[in-house]
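re: ur question from yesterday

yeah so i grabbed the chain u mentioned. its 229 aa long if i counted rite. heres the sequnce exactly as i have it in my notes:
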Amino acid sequence: TVALEFETTEPVKMVYTANGREPKLNSEEYKEALIFTKTTTLKIRSVLLSGKMSKVRTIRIEKQKYAPELKDTSIEPGLQAEYYKGIMRKVSELSGRTPDETERISTPQQAKNLIGNYNEFSGNDFCSTVLTGYINIPTDGVYYFSTDAELWINNELLISNEADNDGTARRYSRSDKSVALSKGLHPVKIIRIGGVFGGWPAQWQPVTVSIRRADEAVFKVMNATYFQP
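ran it thru and got these structure tokens back, copy pasting raw so excuse formatting
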């Protein structure tokens, strides 16, 4: 069971649907937290006094079983880091390429090839990073993840680093995502594309992945403890 609450920046009403259709002026009005017990597509929008409606916000509520842990005693701690030199705009550009360099690191934020200061950049300054390994989940639960990279868990794409229209990478993720995970080890892959997006190099900040349980209010950056078998 999940309860979703909504607010508007102005004192206007909101209308919603839970059947996949677009909300209209005469759709159900939001008045209190919405409770869901099964997979649902929720669409909600605000309505000005003039009758003008906002864009639709679509939220996918998915009922899941806990993804099972991986039972393997031979897993190494940390992450395998692969670095691909050059400017790229899409994750698909990594397909079939051989990494220019590899190393073993303890956390995503230890990945190198950051670009610092306000200097002129050349193509050789840019580098895409692919991190693979396992995360160790402490207890069964629903976990929210947040990252500016592309995030795969249990070989399924959870957070995309690419815009919906043309597959081009972007600077910031547009949403956090949740997944039901059982206690134990789960395969993870993190991809950061090297290039300039929104006027800033993607390598301006370290690669980070943040996590929180559904019953926690604050995200915390995943440290080495999460990448230990």
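noticed a couple things. The chain is about 0% helix and 40% strand. also The mean pLDDT is 89.
anyway ttyl
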